[in-house]
């Protein structure tokens, strides 16, 4: 992306006041922003925390991390380019064992979404890439050209919840027998030719989402990080997750619900068998953006924030 395009770029973090209010439990604590992106949430957290707090920003997209000016925060800030599934190791490397808060603002940063070269947006012309981490081998081009028709349909159905999945998969396979598909526009054509024009944009959004989730193993890494992140929290420490589609939100909801459930005492249970739930849900219903935020920040319209707190004497 050109310098001028970069300077024109604007980024507005989603549900920023709600995140700060619900996540901060110790003004001098250690906070991990597992999806640092352009640093919008970290900057807001920094402005509310004491100078002796510690901030850790993780993102697997080095291009995003490069956009941030560290002098914008007053606390020590450690920026690490890796997948958030490696959060435990990041903390070990920093000599940190417990943290006070973790934020995950899932999905894409707008900088990458707007860059045609990343191939995320069906409205832009670009290569079929879709990797958050460009050092990974698996690209959307490999998925689109190498997966069997059945596997393509499964990906589109499972991760895009698109009911025309079989028809779209058949069309992709037809098109790729003539020529390897390498551009986002070619995937777009496969979808357009397979669905009712009235629902075209919804189907395009679902199919592009499905391939992005597959390329980046998004559901798998989310499940991993939810487990490890919770065990890194101090008692009273909090985890906040903002998700943008129903698959993610469902996973977060179930995870928080399962870990916050009381295990009923049964007669004859030993002390070891009586487990105190790991979490207490701070939000039972997700927090969504109000009208004012949704009208100025389109990305906020689909955002759902859920927050949970590590209980005091939890047994893991
Ligand atoms: C919605 S953006 C975050 C925006 C950020 N909260 C801000 O205010 O600038 C999501 C970011 O998470 C990153 N990301 C997504 N999945 C990731 C993962 N598994 N590990 C590390 N970073 C990830 C993306 O590269 C992207 O930069």
What does this structure look like?
The chain is α/β, with parallel strands linked by helices and about 325 residues long. The chain has 2 domains: about 200 residues, Vaccinia Virus protein VP39 (Rossmann fold), CATH 3.40.50; about 100 residues, DNA polymerase, domain 1 (Orthogonal Bundle), CATH 1.10.150. It contains 14 helices and 7 strands. A 7-stranded mixed beta sheet has the order 3-2-1-4-5-7-6, sandwiched between helices. α3 links the parallel β1 and β2. It is globular and about 65 Å long. It starts with a helix and ends in a 6-residue tail after the last strand. S-adenosylmethionine binds next to α3 and β2.
Would you summarize the structure shown here?
The protein is an alpha/beta fold.
Give the strand content. Answer: 5-15%
CATH class of the largest domain: Alpha Beta
Strand order of the largest sheet: 3-2-1-4-5-7-6
Distance between the termini: 46 Å
Reported CATH architecture of the largest domain: 3-Layer(aba) Sandwich
List unreliable stretches of 5+ residues: 1-9
Keywords:
single chain; Rossmann fold; alpha/beta; DNA polymerase, domain 1; 316 residues; binds S-adenosylmethionine; disordered N terminus
């Amino acid at each position: 992306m050109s310098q001028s395009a970069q300077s024109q770029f604007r980024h507005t973090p989603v549900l920023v006041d709600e995140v700060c209010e619900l996540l901060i439990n110790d003004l001098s604590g250690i906070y991990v922003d597992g999806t640092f992106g352009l640093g919008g949430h970290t900057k807001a957290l920094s402005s509310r925390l004491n100078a002796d707090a510690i901030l850790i920003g993780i993102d697997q997209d080095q291009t995003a991390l490069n956009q941030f000016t560290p002098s914008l925060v007053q606390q020590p800030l450690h920026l690490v380019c890796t997948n958030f599934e490696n959060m435990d190791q990041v903390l070990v490397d920093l000599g940190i064992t417990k943290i006070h808060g973790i934020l995950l603002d899932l999905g894409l940063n707008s900088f990458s979404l707007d860059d045609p070269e990343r191939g995320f947006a069906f409205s832009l012309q670009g290569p079929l890439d879709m990797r958050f981490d460009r050092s990974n081998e698996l690209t959307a081009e490999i998925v689109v050209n190498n997966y069997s028709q059945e596997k393509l349909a499964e990906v589109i159905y499972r991760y895009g919840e698109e009911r025309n999945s079989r028809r779209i998969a058949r069309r992709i396979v037809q098109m790729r027998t003539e020529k390897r598909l390498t551009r986002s526009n070619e995937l777009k054509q496969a979808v357009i030719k397979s669905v009712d024009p009235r629902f075209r944009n919804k189907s395009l959004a679902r199919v592009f989402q499905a391939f992005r989730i597959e390329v980046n193993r998004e559901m798998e890494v989310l499940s991993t990080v939810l487990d490890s992140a919770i065990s890194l929290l101090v008692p009273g420490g909090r985890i906040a997750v903002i998700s943008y589609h129903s698959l993610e939100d469902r996973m977060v909801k179930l995870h928080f619900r399962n870990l916050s459930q009381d295990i009923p005492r049964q007669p004859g249970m030993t002390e070891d068998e009586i487990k105190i739930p790991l979490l207490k849900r701070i939000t039972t219903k997700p927090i969504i953006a109000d009208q004012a935020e949704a009208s100025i920040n389109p990305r906020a319209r689909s955002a759902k924030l859920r927050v949970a707190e590590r209980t005091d004497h939890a047994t893991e």
